[in-house]
Structure of HNH endonuclease:
Amino acid sequence: MPTVTHGSYGALLFHPNWKAKRKEILIRDQHRCVHCKSDKELQVHHRQYHFIVNEQRFRLPWDYPDKLLMTLCESCHSRGHNKYKVPTVNV
Ligand SMILES: [Zn+2]
Ligand SMILES: [Zn+2]
């Protein structure tokens, strides 16, 4: 079972599709971290990673439903990742 991290999404996070999705989520969350309400260094976090079994690949970062994405500031985001492992769901 391969693992995925933000690191392996690296280059994809500069993809125009991700930039567009990220913007949608930031607007939905009113450009605030959903945890601490900070408006500094905002990032969009995936609550789950989806592994598409039929295609043996991970879902592209912008292909997730909006409810699985959330706005976090850099510090809540890195704290969250240190504390919890993002679950990988086979779809
Ligand atoms: Zn925060
Ligand atoms: Zn994250």
User: Anything to note?
Assistant: The chain has a mean pLDDT of 91. Residues 6-90 form one domain.
